[in-house]
Amino acid sequence: xxxxxxxxxxxxxxxxxxxxxxxxxxxxxxxxxxxxxxxxxxxxxxxxxxxxxxxxxxx
Length: 59
Hints:
Distance between the termini: 75 Å
Helix content: 40-55%
Number of helices: 1
Largest sheet: none
Structural class: mainly alpha
């Protein structure tokens, strides 16, 4: 399949990407990083609570 190579007039705006441009995923990587940071914080708090509970059991 060939890409459309006809030139658009200078006063028009292209509403779609040319066929040669690969699909770009949405730019939401920051949300993924934030989710991992929140998950890590939850796991650390949970691990700390287990450690504190184990220390209290030994006494």
